[in-house]
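If you are new to this repository, start here. Below is one unmodified record pulled from the training split, so you can see the exact layout before writing a loader.
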Amino acid sequence: MFQTYEPVSDRSFAKKHLPLLRAEMKKQNLDGFIIPHDDEYQNEYIPAYAERLMWASGFSGSAGAAIVFQDSAVIFVDGRYTLQVRQQADDAFFAYEDITDTSPDQWLAANAKKGARIGYDPMLHTSAGVAKLEAAAKKAGFSLIAVAENPVDLAWEDQPPFPSARIIPHGVEFAGRSSEEKRKEIAAAVKEAGADAVLITAPPSIDWLFNIRGGDVSRTPLALGRAIVDRNGEATLFIAPEKVGNELSAHLGPSVDVRPEAQISAALEKLGAEGKSIALDPALAPAKYAQVLKDAGAKVIDMTDPCALPRACKNETELKGTRAAHVRDGAAVTRFLRWLSIEAPNGIDEITAAQRLESMRAEGGDLVDISFDTISGAGPNGAIVHYKVNTQTNRKIEKNSLFLIDSGAQYRDGTTDITRTVAIGEPTAEMRDRFTRVLKGHIALATMRFPAGTTGSQLDAMARKPLWDAGLDYDHGTGHGVGSFLGVHEGPQRIAKAANSQALKPGMIISNEPGYYKAGEFGIRIENLVVVTPPQPIEGGEREMMGFETITLAPIDLNLVVPALLTETERHWLNKYHARVRQTLTPFLSKEDAAWLAEATRAI
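And here is the target side for that same chain:
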């Protein structure tokens, strides 16, 4: 099994670890220290050695930050983790802040003492992030100190080692384009930016660009490293030598020089000494690298990661692969849902359900990993948006309750992410009403037509309106981008309340996942992945419109649907979707599973 269920932290972490951290801070004459969740690569899911925020606080979520002072501390999380942070980070040591209302730099601007020395690790903060901190320092009158050694690392006695998984070539049969072709595209962008070369620091972009994958990060097949691509398309890949096998050189070709990652700073200094113009993404590159370049004499040009948008717009090979992956995955999820319908009334627990789903995905022989730790939430645990079950929180799935399971898989040809909410026994009228409203929002987004230039933030309200009509809402985004055998969360596209300047483009994969959560009682989320379709004319219209193709295939629980709340158009969508699920998946199911699916996808 890929997923384990032992707790990775507890509320004692703060009491045990903050004194050790404060002792190291005192040695460096620091009054405070900023601890982001981010690692040196700005990954969402990070290697064990980089779980500095969890070590200091006990909070194990995938996003957040903390500021630790000698006599107090504050931790910042978003709406996904409001409940979790209070369970894991001891309030005797941490005050809680909503990061969407007050960011760490805003908090420091309002609360830091004049003259205080506030430290940060320049490898863990981007240039853009440091600029905000510098503005806060100027406003509040504190000193911002870039530390040479992270005091968390110095205090963390049993810190895990840096990962060293071997790199795996990702063939053109999966990638659809050669690395050489991609590098030419990036080189053209470098020329257009007026730069001599670009520094690529984001591992998803590096792995996409060089058609490689790795195992340095759990759940995401990343090979951690850095790269420099010059205006002629030649490149240097900086990667730890122990990750490199004999097959890599042949895969990369003669135009790619492979060097140890430890040499990246020296390479940047050399470029600076030569007076080169180097582009980098200030929102992704460690602030230290920008400073190294400037100190060495380079001209630093701010440039959005040139790999991000072409990586997000999947080519036909990638789309064909992800559709095939979703058929296999949908069959596994359907087998699981039938099993759940039989076993859940007998009192199974959250861990048993998550293990069963993983084993059913593995039965096909194509599973490389799960794409994130399964959110298996029974009853009130389903209301914790990013709940991660462990042996201490594990609940029985009770009769007349809701069970939410959010899961995904990594296959060589695609990455999946699906959420289904299931009634165990007889749901209440409130449960059915809330579920149907979430479904209405899901259908509204799935059926949207929109012109070129439309952003996800312009569509977000469509998924929320049925909930808003009843005075309800949810505190997370409606959609995130998804990679191709890469990250299950991928930008630059998203669908959320927050403004996002990236227009949706054909080939982008994005989730459609409105929800509703009643703290202490139940949670509801319906999630499918969709692909942005090319512009098409509409009969009688004047402009071509894009739309969404739903690629996730699994039944939606009809026991939770109130048909009277659906319009005729919405009922037609649901019936048509279920007919497609039934037709596509039946050939991959046993006679018993197919019979169950036929009933689960009956027309209403």
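Two things worth knowing about this chain: The CA atoms of residues 414 and 485 lie 5 Å apart. The first helix runs from residue 12 to 27.
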